[in-house]
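Hello Y.,

Per our agreement to keep a running log of every chain we model this quarter, I'm adding this entry. I've kept the format consistent with earlier entries: sequence first, then predicted structure.
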Amino acid sequence: MKKLRGILAGLCAVPLVLAVAACAPGQVEGGDQPEAPVGSFNPADYAGETLEYMYFTDGPDEQATRDLIKKFETEYDVTVKLEVLPYSDLVTSTLNRLSAGNAPDVIRLTALTDFRDDLLILDPYLGEDYSDEFLAGPQLAVINDQKQMIAVPSDLTLNGPFVNVDLFNAAGVEIPDKWTWPEMIDKAKQVKEATGIPYAFAMDKSGHRLSTVLSQYGTYMLNSEGNALNQEKAVAALQPLIDMMANDDMPADFWLGSGSRYEGANEIFLAGETPIYLSGNWQVGQFVKNAGFDWAVASNPCAEQCGGFPGGKFMAAFKQSKNPALAAEFLRFMNDTQNQEQFVTVSGQLPTRSDLSKVGLTYADPATQAAMDVFLADLVITPEAGFAANGNPAFSPSATVLVDEVAKVVGGKKDLKTAMADLSVQIDDLVAEIDQ
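Predicted structure for the entry above:
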């Protein structure tokens, strides 16, 4: 099998202030467990203790996580209670627990915005230089305004299109190595017409996925300073999606249901109802296991720019944890070189550690390897501005607003130009609110 090479190291060029504020050992806010000075953690002091890990799963990552938890429990003589929630319920359930003073010790997240003030500062436990172990891009979201580390980037994700190869073959339509947005849409419609399937294109109901399209058309909702939305480019980017939903080439009902909450279109793809599905590399594992047809990952379509839109998952501990030092050690353990390599290669993710970006990674099977090779190739040409956009604390709420505005257009309540103007106003408000 081919191995991933060290070209992820190029991501280190993403601008980032890596220095973190010095913090002398002392009492850390949250819980009654005194902090362990950096480098002095003694597992024997925590034997018999319990940690609670709030978790959501994309598929095979759950078993990879359970395997690593068993390893941690054996090595440290502790118990880790893994509570798996639907992704759509994770934030609300955790906020309710925080309000009740009953926070979990550790949580897996796709964004930190809702919890930034509640997260344990990791520098006193893991060291001032611990953040340097990770690529610059993923670090953007885990350093607070005081230059302190408040979470660990546990895996890197990239959005991109999956294609149903069997449907393309049945329609006699070629899948090119590279394509533009108009070319991709045209080929998708050809496959739909030739095979009689319901849709030509599907994508997750997600502001993150919509941001992929914005990026390819040369604009972003945010940069490191604040609102960066070019409304004219945003209209050009999203109009093809609106048109496809109006023409039943893309499932409109999917975007009108469930409010502004995330919803994945993976079931539509697995049912063979669309030849192209825009999602991300976390779907690879479940498609290897569950797809009853030949599929592949295709290169992202290009417009003004190529590449995808980066994201990732984070592991964080709460200040309310009764065992903050143990929680911080759990984060370190789960994301050391060996354990992160095990996690990403089994679950079909990309690494966040600098050392893993410099070596070849062998994934679990040839299908996963082939898919990850395509994601990696697109990652290298993904604009750096995507990391700054995704790392801005206002990204998550802005993404929710983006979904809501697009849904209003699909539902006939607004035209797209007005929706993007309203989105820009709301982004300004969100940035100002977060900066207060």
